[in-house]
Design a protein that fits this description.
It is a single chain. The chain is mainly alpha-helical. Helices cover 43% and strands 10% of the residues. It is flat, with a radius of gyration of 14 Å. The two termini are 23 Å apart.
């Protein structure tokens, strides 16, 4: 986690390898981590983790989204705010543990 924090504080965008390293670090420390426990990161222009991930998809209102391996559903909820009432988001995860 210290390496990820240092990369973000040095000005790297929270994208690509930095986002992947962050995900791996968080879930190594706490496999049950959710977007609520992760919070907003410094160095990412105040953008919440899942809003940033969903931003890469360039979603628009009315789209249909399938989130495979959705975990706690953070990215799906962020996507749902973009696709709105005219779209649909479905999340599927094989985890048997209820979070």
């Amino acid at each position: 986690m210290a390496e990820v924090r240092a990369r973000i504080l040095s000005g790297e965008r929270f994208a690509g390898s930095v986002a992947a390293a962050f995900y791996n670090a968080v879930h190594t420390l706490d496999p049950t981590a959710t977007e609520d426990s992760v919070a907003t990161l410094q160095g990412n222009s105040g953008v919440h983790l899942y809003s940033s991930l969903v931003g890469w998809a360039a979603l628009v209102a009315g789209e249909r989204v399938l989130d495979l391996g959705c975990g706690s559903g953070g990215a799906g909820r962020a996507a749902a705010t973009i696709v709105g009432d005219s779209g649909i988001v479905v999340g599927v995860d094989s985890c048997r543990r209820v979070l």
